[in-house]
């Protein structure tokens, strides 16, 4: 294939365009199909003047690229079909690119099944570190098998002290946790291949949609990656009011009894707060905790 035919022109279109380049004043019939087609391609203007060769070739190349991209997009659907057929062959049941799962337990079972077969990567976005419907998906066995797990939860959940404690415990096991102040919609992505989104944003009990369409899953995975980068590590969280009071009381009083009385709490409660602060700071002693707190600007 030579000449402009390689860029999509028919022989008649190319012959007419070349003729107009050689003889711009040649009379044309505006109703001629080749004239109409060249105008639609942008190779003729309204006055039926031929576009300059550089402009014409650029237009044709861009059109060819767009056509190729559309064909590639169509061909990419073959991979979706392959994924679907492979899963049907593995599971022995029909697989849909978008499937509704009725409730939380069904969603968790499906996630665990996918991760059991291939414990690669799991990213989870949710309101609370401890889910209302219970059951953390990346169980210890999956983490031990090499699962890379990340969980993002809302900063609003930190009003409940138990949420941070749970998040830290999971983080220590390898299910990395971060806190986000961005709006939350429950979302999970398994192995960057399957996504789970809340079926009805207004009704948490409505279950979830399992999505296997590659383009949609890739977009959702990118959204989660961006939120993860913008989120805060647990060690970067600001102190709660009571933690700030406990930290300052320790610097002003010589004994736990005196510090507890100043804060109007029990000695046992004070020591529990001190232990949490030391763990959060990674300090072995109270003196080390004070130094680390000062370095972070907490004192």
Automatic annotation (TrEMBL):
A Pfam match: GerE
Superkingdom assignment: Bacteria
Species of origin: [Actinomadura] parvosata subsp. kistnae
UniProt xrefs under SMART domains: HTH_LUXR
Location of the HTH luxR-type domain: 236-293
Name of this chain's protein: HTH luxR-type domain-containing protein
GO biological process, alphabetically ordered: regulation of DNA-templated transcription
GO molecular function term, any single one: DNA binding
